[in-house]
User: Fold this.
Amino acid sequence: YFMTKTTERLARWVSSLRYESLPSEVIGKAKLCLADSISCMVGGADLVPSKTLLKVLCRSGQGSVAVPGVSARLGLLDAAYYGAQTANALDFDDDLIGHPGATVVPIALAVGQVAGANGADLVTAIVAGYEVSMRIGESCMPTYERSQNVKGYSTWQTFGSVVSAAKLLSLSDVLIENAMGLAGAQAPVPNVRKFMDRGACGWLKNAYGIAGEIGVLSAHLAAESYAGNRNIFDGPNGFWIMSGSDQFRPQLAVNGLGAIWKIDDVNFKEYACCYYLQSALDAIDLLKNRQGTSDVERIEIRAFLELPLHFCGPLPNSIVEAQFHAPYLVALQWLGRSPAQGLREEDLTDPTVLALARKVALRHDPAMDRSFRECDLYPVRVIATDKFGASSEAFVERPRAAEQSSQTQELVERKFFSIVSPKLGEKATTHAWNMIHEIEKHSVDELVRILVP
Assistant:
């Protein structure tokens, strides 16, 4: 059970992966992941936490690595840290067992510049990073009961960072084993439960910055023959228990490598907030279409346990807290200030928004728990009651964006232009979008250069 050679098998697969062996649909999805993460980085750079972080990182001195959305150039490790943080800053980034893009795409862009990588190299590194990140996440995922106390994403997303960096450095399988061992030994603790404790969310959020930096550092150390533990995932003391989990399912890490592509299942968000809350905002849209936006006296959300347990409390004081506050987000959606357009600082103190948020109540519906825990669904029933006592309800089981897979490219394109254009201009944004979809003809440096304001 434990002596599975998981580390060795993953390292061999990463080392042997070639662009030419990737299915066309996987390449297409990787390009959408690239575009989506870039838009999140550009938009995330404008938030107060990101500006504060950049100010501190710049004290280390000027570097040569560009990061989408800012004019400053940073050292390689700082660029990886900053890019991973900005990618997740809006909470608009992709989703599947965490936010895989935040610890893959910024790292690939940073290392790719230094390594002189071309577009095909970039796509291959992104695919490798996504696959390993999500497979390790699945295999080390704690039981539901354990996850109520111990939960983290950056802990194992560190391996997405190290693998994408290692691939761009063309490391051998043995050196990739070393790199993963070094990354696992330095990976951040699982912080999600404390990060969201009592509704006061720290600005580091999932701590993706340090996960990104550790991945880049570990790959470069391995490239210089710096030794790491070469079986980091294996044995009764493997990474699964290091990360606080209570189970290890190694088959999920290696089964179907090169045949079943986890990147295919990645979801893109329609709203700038936690994925758990997307269904509720879709339900509000349905109610508005039926009922209009007449005076509402009460909005009740019946949902699986996690929503009333972790996504309410005192009204938010920051954009970060707002991303995880269901009543506040529902109020914005009802008032036509949809999180699909991002979140605005001025709404945090708007009396109209706050008054409506206070009328939103979350209720636990035990009948919905099984769908959430076992079926990867996010069921909610939203009931809106007006001042005359008339009510209307809507039930949504899965976010609209996940259901409408045929419109995925349209969603990513709309997000890309709505976020990037105001900062870089329509011409540069169109150029960047076209370049991403023909990235094989370009270098990483060419792409990043046009994403700098």
Observations:
- The two ends are 52 Å apart (CA to CA).
- Residues 275-398 form a domain with the 60s Ribosomal Protein L30; Chain: A; fold (CATH 3.30.1330.120).
